[in-house]
Amino acid sequence: MSARRLHEQQPSSFAFTADNRAWAEKEIQKYPPGRQASAVIALLWRGQDQEGWVTKPMIEEVARFLRMPYIRVLEVATFYTMFNLAPVGRHLVQVCTTTPCWLAGSDDVVAACKKHIAPRPATISADGVFSWMEVECLGACVNAPVFQIGKDFYEDLDGPKTEAILVAFRRGEQPKPGPQDGRRSSEPAGGLTTLTDRSIYQKPPGSAT
After folding, report:
1. Do 113 and 164 reside in the same domain of the chain?
2. Is 1 exposed, middle or buried (0-12, 13-18, 19+ CB in 10 A)?
3. Taking 80 as the threshold, does the pLDDT of residue 48 lie above it?
């Protein structure tokens, strides 16, 4: 894994919102006295959810909040790739390019991101709406290709479907997540192939229970 470092340009300060601070205080109560450091990932994640990325002032604030050395919180933030160490667009598009998605056509999804967002990953679009990146398996291999935007997963993608989703987001719409080919969840793409004869598992009318 390549070294991950904090972004060169940093904000001057960070503070949790009142709601997030109340949430953080409640979160650390889940752990025994002296074990508050166990909440470090949760607090960093909440901070990223608030700001979009993890900043040096945020790491310092989390360290003070949990009474941890700054370096320990920095180690966590730089180790886990789920933490963004640089600014991102309003919508971060995480494209899975692991083998199942690649075999199913994730190259076309990447091409659409390059066209509608920016030619290179980890680059914010000119209007600030998007940034995109390649990630490892998102756990939806049977619905490949897939990408994640925020907390939602968009599955069964191809180039045109990806473009349509990005255009919709740019218009301020919220496209429905999940499979984009009309199927339900991860049911067989071509329809049922087993248990198609209902008579084998349905009782005849009037039969005893």
Report:
1. yes
2. exposed
3. yes
